[in-house]
Amino acid sequence: MNGNSDTDYVRLRLRLYFGDDLMLGPGKADLLDLIASHGSIAAAGREMKMSYKRAWMLVEAMNKAFRAPLVDSTRGGIQGGGARLTETGEQVLAHYRRLEQQVAVSGASEIKAIRDLLNVTSKTE
Amino acid sequence: MNGNSDTDYVRLRLRLYFGDDLMLGPGKADLLDLIASHGSIAAAGREMKMSYKRAWMLVEAMNKAFRAPLVDSTRGGIQGGGARLTETGEQVLAHYRRLEQQVAVSGASEIKAIRDLLNVTSKTE
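^ inputs. structure came back:
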């Protein structure tokens, strides 16, 4: 948001892979957050400018990858369907967010060192 | 390599973004490592099953993003050209590798917690 803040120069993103497959990264974590806040996979996908189909596919992939589904959803119906995070979904998301925080803290000095080597003119773009 | 080791279940990969652009991630870091060991952008790219053009583009992008080029190269000539990491290149790569190590250590418990929630049958695939 603030283009002049130091932390905007370099952002660290974490992706967890399970074998060769992306299991959890910033996109899926944000999708889970938005499903929790909107109570709808479609609305969460829209906010991420993602097709309904893609949002569903990501949810399906996560639901399969874990011991229990991360998202519980009801399609259609009079109420138009709805979705919420399961207990496992809340746990996985919380672990991922804590991982992001811990990594940002522990990695701060190396990230700063890399940032300090960046081209200064590029920083103002 | 060892499909039964715990650490193979979940691998953490770090990507550093500068604004919206990927600045440094596992692919570029490996490319830098291979350029250092092979002394050639083409050979490094081949080992990563990457076209010569793509390897060059990644190097150019890194060279522009930092204060000083990360890779010093001579195209063609009698010797067939060659490439090596500059001091800045070695520094950036070293910071990235240390960042990976620190993050793996500091994130271990959260990563384990996520791994413990994975579908057991998927783990054996």
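Confidence is low (pLDDT under 50) at residues 1-7 of chain A. Helices of chain A lie at 6-9, 26-38, 41-47, 52-65, 87-106, 108-116, 120-123.
thumbs up if we can close this ticket
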